Amino acid sequence: MVNLVKVAASVLVSVLFLQSCTGVPDNVEPVGNFELPRYLGEWYEIARYDHSFEEGLSDVTATYSMREDGGVKVINRGFSSEENTWDEAEGRAYFVKSPSIGHLKVSFFGPFYASYVIMDLDKDDYQYALITGPDKEYLWLLARSPELSPQIKTRLLNKAQAAGYDTDKLIWVTHTRH
What we know:
This protein has 178 residues and is α+β, with helices and mostly antiparallel strands. 21% of the residues lie in helices and 38% in strands.
């Protein structure tokens, strides 16, 4: 009986941990009426919070395409000036609930997934997006070109600030090698 309780507790902790990794941060709502085919293709990383997996990278892009299993293939690429090489990571993403909601889970390592929450998106032309992860330690501004207009940049920063993000922590990515 004690072993059964331990197993049940372990399963519960695992489920809660996995749910927290694919959850949505407070004060954030994933976009609705999302259209994956329009989102596919190359995106330039305009700004990001600093994380070890992107440390020192410039010219960062994310390219999304369909997988045979219906998921999304993710290729993240950036230039390391320290090593004078391109770094690339391949991942996979799947919708957490509905394909019409901009909330996916993404994995770059085995069975471990994290949230990819599209919290703002140019619904007319899919030219810019504001992305967060499972908590407020992750934030990205993406665009279809290496630069955003000052008006769009201000709009996205205001949206992030209203949701509780510290936009002063953003690193602005340079794009000179494309």
